[in-house]
Each structure stands twice: as C-alpha cells, then as structure tokens.
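Good morning C.,

I know you're traveling, so I'll keep this short. The sequence:
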Amino acid sequence: MNLQLAQELVQRYLQFADADPVTPAQLGHLEAQLNVVLPEDLKLIASVYSGGRQIGGLSIEKILADEPYGDVASCTHALRRSIQLPDRYLVLAEPPESLVVFETKAQATIETPVIWLASYDVDRLRTGEPLRDADLFESYSEFFAFLLDRELEERDDHSEEPGYIR
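The tokens, ready to paste straight into the viewer:
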C-alpha cells in the first residue's frame, strides 16, 4: 500500500479546503458496525476529508453522519438489504445511474479497489459475473487522486471567470 501517495493527497487537499477529519475512534466504530477492515490509505485521507461534500464533481457519502442516514454505513446497510450487496463492499457514492463501492480486504495494509460501475451492473457484484461498464481504481488513494485532479481542473476552468474566488 502506498501511504506516501495518501500523504501527498492529504497535502494537496489541504491546499484548497479545510480539514474535516474523522477520528480513529469513529473509523473503528464504522469498522465494527459494518464488520470490515478499512484500508490504511482511507484512514489517512479521512484525517482531513470526511466525505459529505462534493469533490471532483462527485458527492461522496459522509463517512459518519449526525443523522441516521446519508453516510457510508446507512447506504451500505440499505444496499446489503435491498440487493444483497456482498459484505465486502462499502458504498462510497450513488451518482445518477451508477454506484461507487470499494472492496474491503482482511488486512488494512492491503489495497482495496474502488469500483465505479453502471447501475445495470450492480447485481453482478453479488453474482460475481464480469462487470460490463465499470472504472476500476487500484486503491482508495488512486480514486481520491482522480477526484482531486478533477476538482483542480474544475477550479482552473473557472478561475478566469469574473468574480471567481479561489
């Protein structure tokens, strides 16, 4: 696992946004609640980004929400019940006509792939059939880097507009 990349991403994120951390205790609670092991790179990035705010044009679920819905745990539980999403997957986002999940592993030091798949492929997560339309990121860090790159491109595209504040 490339924790150096995760640390670099934390620094990049802090260049344009304030830290909104999740504590190690909160992450431990999430792991217990969902019976999973979260990857180390997610834990490091969560020290500054807790989700719940759009980044790179994608609204990521809050890691832990104050209300009983709208966070990773409630979205994951809902899909585990409704479509029998396998326990190893956690829901990161539900963009229109797609789903973003990451596949947990038995150890926190093993990279966990993030999968952005079309809604018509969601059942294939349960059946194990090959996905027809999906983007695969090798790790949470790689996925977060993709989002940061998109965010910075969007900001650069708008930086020439009158009244734009960086």
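Safe travels,
E.
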